Amino acid sequence: MKFFTKREQIVILLLVIIVVFIIFFNLYNKNVTLNKKTNLEEITLDDLEEIDEGKPKDENEAEEIIMVHISGQVYKPGLVQLKNGSRVIDAVNSAGGLKSEADLDRINLAKKLADEEKIYIPKIGEDNDIIDEVEISDGGSSSNSSGNKSNKININTCTKEELMNLPGIGEVLATRIVEYRESRKFNSIEDIMNVSGIGNKKFENIKDFITVK
Predict the structure, then answer these.
(1) Domain containing 150: what range?
(2) Which of 39, 40, 71, 131 could form a disulfide linkage to 77, CB 3.0–4.6 angstroms apart?
(3) What is the 3-state secondary structure of 163-210?
């Protein structure tokens, strides 16, 4: 039997090592390629959907939002955010619903709303003369010019919502006025300046719209 020489054995061993290395290298490249392909598929199927969701929608697809101010006989008067095309009933629901004193015969719940619109829900038996610069939701306006002194609210008996319709009077000041008159009566319109936060400038803005009679 012929045996390989030592030199031949070394050559054969080197060849075997080379073949094994080539096989291993090819397997490694296949695994890397497979992993890349798998990751690409995962991104295509899953991640790209999340990326698309994060992209801003086309202006035509974006839902238009309007802001409406509602006051009067609702439980949560103030600003409400609605979808474009909403109606008075939607604003009422966003404001907590109608109070039992609301005069349904003087409002149109089906009226469509526009951005920056003001809605006033009157009280049953409420005199139109005390509604100053507010929009009756049946589409008619009860607003008056700022120089008209015939339509005034009695600061001793009016509601907080009516006070909030005065120029520059928000919910905080309206609450202070109500709290003040609970312990004492306004004997003159100038007495309203005794309420914290109402100075000469603010009084000048509201004096033509208030009375104590």
Answers:
(1) 144-213
(2) 71
(3) HHCCCCCCHHHHHHHHHHHHHCCCCCHHHHHHCCCCCHHHHHHHHHHE
